[in-house]
Fold:
Amino acid sequence: MPRPILPPLRDRFRLTPVAARLAPLFGFALLIVSCALASFAFACATPFAACAVVAAAMLPLRPALLVVTGAWLVNQGIGFGALHYPIDPSTIAWGFVIGAAALLSTAAASTVLRRLPQGRTPLMLAIAFVAAYAVYEFAATPVLGGEGAFTAAIVTRIGLTSAIWLAGLVVACEIVRLADPFGRAMRNA
Structure:
């Protein structure tokens, strides 16, 4: 019997690439790998808004926040360890503010996804992304200043990059869901 393309009705608004009990581990692995790739490719422009939406669409809020925290820790580890970010108060403060903004954007995406009507559509993920990206981009400005880094051109470029990452992460989730590497019995567990 062929696998249905759409997940069961109760999970229509969620990305369900693996069984519910494996989702936190899968989400953690997916976001860690993508965050590591983004950290090396873009240095300080890791697409945390995209990570926030995927985590919120895959997991309840608390595990989603933990997964995004793990991705942020990997980003910071790569930044300070491999990319040799300067260890000064300003850089460290920015790191913490980026982490807080990533968590706030996860909460925003989760809230939006819970409030939207049932149905897993690209539009729902896009709306959640807009909310998460707005929260992420504008959470840091009042705390640390740096309005010059938030020009329309920079915000647009980072937003488009994050949107492409979101699409890639959703595609990765769908490929895993359709490939069903853990077996149908694992999905129903």
Observations:
- The longest helix spans residues 152-179.
- Residues 135 and 142 are 12 Å apart (CA to CA).
- The chain is about 70% helix and 0% strand.
